[in-house]
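Reopening this ticket.

The earlier resolution said the output was attached, but the attachment link was broken on my side. Pasting everything inline this time so it's all in one place.
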Amino acid sequence: MLFILIATNGAISYLISKNIINPLMTLKKATKKIKQGELDFQIQSNRKDEIGELFSSFEEMRGQLKKSIDLQLKYEENRKLLLSNISHDLKTPITAIKGYVEGIQDGIANTPAKTNQYMSTIYKKANDMDAMIEELFLFSKLDLKRIPFEFVEMNILSYMNECVEDLSFVYKQKGMRIEFFNENEEPIFVYVDREKLMRVFTNIIMNSVKYMNKPDGIVSLSVHERDEWVEVVIADNGPGILKEAIPYVFDQFYRADQSRNSDKGGSGLGLAIAKQIIEEHGGEIWIPEDIKNGAEIHFTLKKVKH
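Inline output:
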């Protein structure tokens, strides 16, 4: 009886140690690693009982925690990059304004014509700074999802025709022609924020105008139905986009010339803002790689079924 009792006690102790104590010790070690900030590990169990479920829940928690911290680090890196880039971009017009003000104070602008020229330049640089700050403010609010969207149902064909009429009037003085090719006989309805979508068209067309290298620049807009989606294409006859630059075009502060002091101006946020707005609509935006002449930007919007 004593032998049976000892054997039974040993067997029970072994089973408890194997099935309960050892797994708990594994979880304890994993908890200590997480406490120390180490998240690059995995804990797995093939068991189908409560202990196995505990392991699965713990591993899911570790994965979510790692994902959250990685996202936080990415946001922190983006904020640092944002501050660095905007500081650099604001420095250029500020330096120019200071130079022209000093020129007026030192008497370099010694004629009314020259004074007017200096004042006009100061006013232009101040407007550039104002536009840059406004775009930065919009980008930040979109990035933090703190800007409301007011979605309404509308006919995308009529809306785009209105956009082209408005933008054509603006860019006609710059030698640009904005065209809308509509081959659709029936209206196509989408659910969008009219004001935000107008910002997408404006930013993309402004980008085409900024890099246009021809006196007879043309930007053409078209709409194509794709099952449950509407695909909008904005194309131009400019210099196009280098294939190696395509993956970065929608990144914040990306500029094709990479000099960051280009006389073409702009904040470098236009296409990044367009991307955020389209994604808030549930669509996608991209640049095809097989375009031989000019540049094309495509984006999709969800169709409304009637």
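Reporter confirms the inline version is readable. The first helix runs from residue 2 to 35. The longest strand covers residues 217-226.
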